[in-house]
Amino acid sequence: MPHPRLAIPVYDVGMSGGTHTKSRARRSRVSLTAVLDEFFFIFAGIAAVWLAWLLLTESFQIGWWGILVAILFWGLLAYLVLPRIHRVLTTIYVPDYFIGRTRTSDGLLGDPINLALLGDSDQLHSAMRAAEWTRADPVTVRSSLRIVTSTVIRRSYDEAPVSPLFLFGRMQDFAYQQEVTGNPAKRHHVRFWRTPEGWLLPGGERVDWLAAGTFDRAVGFSLFTLQITHKIDADTDVERDHIVGTVLSHNPAARLRVLPDFSTGYHSRNGGGDSIRTDGDLPILDLRALSIETDGERSQVEAAIRGADRD
Amino acid sequence: MLIVTEPRKRAAIEPALVLLERESSAELPAKRPATTVLGAVFVLTRALAGVLWLGAFLLVWPEIVAEEGFDTEEAQLGGWLVSSVSGVGIFALFLLAWLIWRGSNTARILVMCGLTLSITTSAIGYFAMGEEITIRTTLMVLALDILVLLALSSRDSRAWSRRRSRATTSAGESPARDGAG
Predict the structure, then answer these.
(1) How far is B124 from chain A (nearest CA, A)?
(2) Rounded to whole angstroms, what are the CA distances from B22 to A17, A38, A92, B25?
(3) How many distinct helices (H) and strands (E) make up chain A?
(4) Which of A12, A40, A196 sits opposite B116 (nearest CB)?
(5) What is chain B's Cα-based Rg?
(6) Kind of pairing, strands A115-118 and A282-286?
(7) Percentage of chain B with pLDDT > 70?
(8) What is the pLDDT of residues A28-70, one digit of tens each?
(9) DSSP, res A159
(10) What is the C-alpha to C-alpha distance for residues A237 and B6, in angstroms, rounded to an integer?
């Protein structure tokens, strides 16, 4: 096998490349506002802690209205104060290189990376569609409203967006999911990230995509952030094997290889405070032999899937 | 479309300055974030409240003049002084609101300076002078100040207005594509 990377990678130091002096000059100009920004970021966090304390003491003083103020206190704490504190602290102490874990938008450790893939994006989309997975909508105001309405009127929303998780400093490129009939709280879902050009897994293996697949088993309180969120099933290996199984059974051209003990068997907690158990094996799905359908065929397949969903 | 970036390698020991700059290279939101909208709307609300206050002042000013026994010249001078000073302030607030909406980083930082001063003043009053902050007094104003500071200092808001400012200065004019989606 030829070595996938021959040249030493050059890491971008400036915003958009350029000579060293140029990027250095730009950096020093950015730094001043960056320092101010960081000050305001931390100051706002401290001020929010104070505000939460004021609200808490106030809630004891004003009788029954205090219950409303106490709910406000929880909302402030869970959705503004704790995320800000987590953000400040995780920037300092959570390593930002690849450790086989994703990070939440607050910088906490998220779902484990438990699947790798080879192939281009067309092959990946085609394989997932064939395996009866539905692509998740991106998080927008509209899709968020649709989640609320579909929960209230109990209608299924099988393209419901998934929350953002971060790898290589960016949000997932896309996500796929499978609904569990009759239960909006449960679903299979898997997020995909394209690996950077020339990037190798620890150990030197080159893969095109990394994925984190977990099973949402219920809606509940997060342990670390006190937010209402999906709780994931602790045994992430079951979900990993489910994804691999569905892709292999619907795509005869797909091949499987396993890196045994890629992440040594561990148990831990994700950003929502759910525990995680895994045997540490990393399956690599090779989709490079998949022939991609033409656009016409693809839209036919999509129409067929949509039609089947409506029935 | 996929934007493939190089992995950011971290040294074992890194200078604090690197931590400050890390976020600027992170994912840049294309749309105007909700936090920026909130900040702009808040500054606009402050400006409108200023207009209301000025209107109310001009209405009751003749009564004050009659009560205090100012002569015509004093009354005119006082009225002109108050309305011009607050007029400039209100104009500045409108301008800041519009600039934040457009994505000016300087306007965002100026407003955050103002909010920080206001919050610090309340905090000194509360901790050092024993002033009460309850729902009946100034809790709502303080809460709004802190929430808007949280919004304007958020990563989304920061990344977006930094990129907008950079695009504006490098192009020498307003960017071709408006961020509103």
Answers:
(1) 12
(2) 16, 11, 11, 6
(3) 7, 14
(4) A40
(5) 22
(6) parallel
(7) 75
(8) 545 678 889 889 999 999 999 999 888 888 878 777 877 888 8
(9) T
(10) 30
pLDDT per position as a tens digit, A204-262: 889 999 999 999 887 777 777 778 878 888 888 899 999 999 999 998 899 999 998 88
Q: Which residue of A has its CA nearest to B138?
A: A54
**pLDDT score, position B87:** 92
Residue A202 backbone dihedrals phi, psi, to 5 degrees: -55, 125
A26 to A13, A84, B8, B155: CA distances (angstroms): 11, 28, 19, 20
**Nearest to residue A273, comparing CAs of A73, A68, A104?**
A104
CA–centroid distance for B156 within its chain: 16
The span from the CA of A266 to the CA of A285, in Å, is 22
pLDDT: is A279 or A193 the higher one?
A193
Burial of B65 from C-beta contacts in 10 A (0-12 / 13-18 / 19+):
middle
Cα distance between residue A110 and residue A171, in whole Å: 12
Paired sense of beta strands A174-179 and A228-232, if any: unpaired
Contact of A265 with A256, CB cutoff 8 Å: no
Of the given ranges (A248-252, B2-6, B129-133), which has the lowest mean pLDDT?
Answer: B2-6
**Interface residue of A13, A51, A91 to substitute, partner B, most B CBs within 10 Å:** A51
Report the alpha-carbon distance of residue A210 to residue A288 in Å, rounded: 15
pLDDT the model gives residue A265: 60
This model of the complex carries an ipTM of: 0.72
Please judge whether B123 and A50 are an interchain contact, meaning their C-beta atoms are less than 8 angstroms apart: yes
**Mean pLDDT, range A126-140, rounded to an integer:** 88
> Residue A72 and residue A58: Cα distance in Å, rounded?
11
